[in-house]
Amino acid sequence: MEDRSICLFYLKIGACRHGEKCARKHIRPQELKTVLLANLYPNPKTDRNSDISDSNESFEHFYTDVYKRLAQAGEIDSMLVCENENFHLSGNVYVKYTSTVSAQQAVMLINQEWFAGKPVYCELLPVQSFHDAKCRSHDTNTCNRGDHCNFMHIKKLNSEVGRRLRLAQDKSIAIKRLRKLFDDETWGEGYLEPSKEKYSRNKKPKVAKEAENVVEEDKNGEKEEEKVEGAEKTSETAETESKEEEEELEEVSTTEAVARLFS
């Protein structure tokens, strides 16, 4: 049976509409991996002073900026942004890390910073699964409570943007591990810089081109060697034939030679 003295909204969502005045207990487990940045996203629906327009491009810039900063504290498992209109959920950014150490590090770092001219409030949450905190009806546009629902209405992010951020994080983590392995903090600096070349699926990588050039040079070298060997063989053959011809010639007198012609 569920303990009615515990606030289930705070346990599942990490945010309660009653706040600190809630009559039920807001329990915080010792090991927490989820971090809340309350009202960080300047939701254009509720914030009239928001500098962010209600467009996908503006949201992607916001999401990317925040994700990169939070990833500096540790490996991010997932990150969500609420677009609810009620104050205790509006603009909330939820970040789940892969370790409790990373989550604690994020709280210490982010609580000292400002965003969009306002101080950032960051705290650890008991949320274990975003699946239980999300409003499933919102995903199918069938939520009867609208944007004042007390479950998370997650603002949708372009899947390609999310994929690129995860790949960039994986790359950064791999380089950090290699630096630790090689005991060299400067190793792989060139790999962290973004490439200025546009990606093309049909374009062959430089390494492959260089390999092809080497193969062609080897082939050309082999052909030249074959030509030289052929020329040497030809000269050797000519010399051999001339020698054979010389050997075939007999030393005979003029009289004998004339006699053979008329014989």
Automatic annotation (TrEMBL):
It comes from the Eukaryota. One of its GO terms (molecular function) is zinc ion binding. Keywords: Metal-binding, Repeat, Zinc, Zinc-finger. Residues 254-263 have a biased composition (Low complexity). Residues 198-263 are annotated as: Disordered. GO terms for cellular component: commitment complex; U2-type prespliceosome; U2AF complex. A zinc finger (C3H1-type) spans 1-29, 129-156. One of its GO terms (biological process) is mRNA cis splicing, via spliceosome. Residues 238-253 have a biased composition (Acidic residues). Residues 207-236 have a biased composition (Basic and acidic residues). This is C3H1-type domain-containing protein.
